[in-house]
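=== RUN LOG ===
request id: a7f3
mode: sequence -> structure
chains: 1
length: 244
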Amino acid sequence: MGKKRLRPVDLAREHGLSAQAVRNYEEQGIVPDSERTPHGYRVYTPLHARALRTFVALIPAHGHQMATGIMRALNTDDIDTALALLDEGHAQLLRDRQTLAAVDTALRDLASSEPQAPPRGGVTFIGGLARQLGIGPATLRKWEKAGLVEPHRDPDTGYRVYTTADVRDAHLAHQLRRGGYLLRQIAPLIAQVRHAGGIEPLESTLDGWHARLTARGLSMLTAAAELSAYLEDRGHIPLASSPA
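=== RESULT ===
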């Protein structure tokens, strides 16, 4: 790239940042080291502007921490590390999409299957719920310890009693376990159902989750274009694909 001289404020203005933020990014290795005037003032070039533009594009795609790691690797010509971090970000997005799909399927299956309601009195006991699910009572106790179900205790007998909401949570947990999800992965999802007050109110949460994943995927495309341009400016020109 050309050797046009730029000041910190010139880089900052494009992104609504402060000049100090640009200097901080240089100290963190996000922007390459600048040259200095005889009086110690930083002198940036269009390459530095491209680096900052790339970093800003990486943040919504991969998060601040990973974006920082990617830029540090690129600025020390450690291309393999940068690519590995990018692979990790894409793999995480895929896992998040798979989790969302599993939760959505489990909720739809649960809504259509209409789990057996508790008997008279509005509660059921551990044996009856275990039979509904086709699992052992020990499994329900394990789920309780992990926070997937929260039965109350009968004040007279001390037995576990499950309300309609508890039965719903147990069926949802069962669906997700069948999908291969770990207890620690299921617990926060069950908590969202409880917080939303049921399955139907959670639909808007799932819609928002889906929209965020779509936005992240699109941000990755934007970031990839900036990364490619930055690599080219640094002399790491991607190899052209061979003709068929």
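=== NOTES ===
The chain has ten helices and five strands.
Residues 94-210 form a domain with the Multidrug-efflux Transporter Regulator; Chain: A; Domain 2 fold (CATH 1.10.1660.10).
=== END ===
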